[in-house]
Write a structure and sequence with these properties.
The structure is a single chain. This protein is α+β, with helices and mostly antiparallel strands. It has one domain. The strands form 2 sheets. The chain has a two-stranded antiparallel ribbon. β1 and β2 form a beta hairpin. The longest helix is centred in the C-terminal third of the chain and has 32 residues. The protein is elongated, with a radius of gyration of 20 Å.
């Protein structure tokens, strides 16, 4: 599932004019901040396991981008990090999909998809606000850099 940012034409135009690496430097921290409410909501949506609570602790977020490509990405996911509970290693990745989508015998309890739909508006507004702030900061740094070069 993905979110497409629609709106703020000036921001979108300014991002298109940046070089690939610069666009990623502007968007990566913005995406990371925008994913925070999704991660928080996903943790709230998981019915706390009476035994360990491992799934709730394993929900994480990550933002990144490739150099040379004009794409930055972000994801909220379940970490593959075994956790010790009463002498047993529990790895939430091995059962998170059964909880999200259900099985033949267990009804689904969507927590990631539900979190995304519940926070879609928040994500969009945070992403627009943070990207605009980062873009202004980046433009200020470029302006200073360009200004000092011209003086020499």
């Amino acid at each position: 599932m993905s979110i497409e940012l629609i709106g703020d034409k000036q921001l979108f135009k300014a991002l298109l004019e940046l070089t690939n690496d610069s666009a990623i430097r502007v968007m990566r921290p913005s995406i990371s901040k925008a994913l925070t409410p999704v991660r928080r909501q996903a943790k709230n949506n998981v019915k706390r396991n009476r035994r360990s609570g491992a799934l709730q602790r394993a929900i994480a977020k990550k933002a990144g981008g490739k150099r040379g490509a004009k794409k930055a990405w972000g994801k909220v996911y379940v970490r593959s990090k075994p956790q010790n509970w009463q002498g047993k290693n529990i790895n939430p990745v091995k059962y998170a999909h059964f909880i999200e989508y259900g099985t033949r015998n267990i009804r689904p309890y969507p927590f990631l998809r539900l979190a995304l739909t519940q926070t879609r508006g928040q994500v969009s507004s945070i992403l627009q606000r943070e990207a605009s702030i980062k873009l202004k900061q980046f433009a200020g740094r470029l302006r200073k850099k360009h200004h000092t070069r011209r003086r020499r």
